[in-house]
Amino acid sequence: MVDVNLSEEEQVEALKKWWKENGRSVIVGLVLGLGGVFGWKAWTQHQQEMVEQASARFEQLGQSVAVGSTESAVKQAELLINDFGDSAYAIFASLDLAKVRLDQGDVKGAQPRLRWAMENSTDPSIRQIARLRLARMMLNDGDLDGTSGILAQADDDSFRGEFAKLRGDLALAQGDKAAARTAYQEALDNGVSNIALVQMKLDDMAVTAGP
Predict the structure, then answer these.
(1) How many domains does the chain have?
(2) Are residues 60 and 142 in the same domain?
(3) Which of 99, 124, 147 is the endpoint of a domain?
(4) Alpha carbons 170 and 156: distance in angstroms, whole number
(5) Nearest to 154 by CA among 175, 184, 177, 133
(6) What is residue 44's predicted lDDT score, i.e. its pLDDT?
(7) pLDDT over threshold 50, residue 2
(8) Rounded to whole angstroms, how far apart are CA atoms 63 and 66?
(9) Which domain-ending residue is among 147, 171, 199?
(10) Residue 211 — very low, low, confident or very high, per pLDDT cuts 50/70/90?
(11) What is the value of pTM for the model shown?
(12) 58-90, pLDDT tens digit by residue?
């Protein structure tokens, strides 16, 4: 710092000396500081542009799915997943792609898309929805061991009733009626969506068992 008690000439000389010793670091600091500001703005702008692009592509995908343009929907979904794989749009695109594949009768092609959504979503509810769909698909395809593995990973949350219903279906497919009844009752006790269907399955087993 410059001593205020120095004469004007001494102050000038002191300033020159200080600048010589510290000027470069001041300039570097200013450049870095400004670079940080402009760099942050550029990064946030880039991020916003990416979000807008992903949103536009997802809207196009939705339109293709709605009108039944299968080939276009598949291409759009795959591009969205590849280009914006770390976004929520990619997760929903993967779910849409699984539905399109299933509608085509391509069960094996649909399952990896559901698994990818389940493993990559940061939203617990989306993960559970993907897990439910995958487990149902595998059960319908006769993959009992695979279904059991998927159900074992399910979290104990608001989807508990839905997973209990699926465990009942799995137990029934495995011939374990006692386990099926227990699971169906758990489903009813935990707010399964299709209460009438689960109750009907319980009633059917009671009739089959006899008095």
Answers:
(1) 2
(2) yes
(3) 147
(4) 18
(5) 133
(6) 67
(7) no
(8) 5
(9) 147
(10) very low
(11) 0.71
(12) 788 778 778 788 888 888 888 888 888 778 888
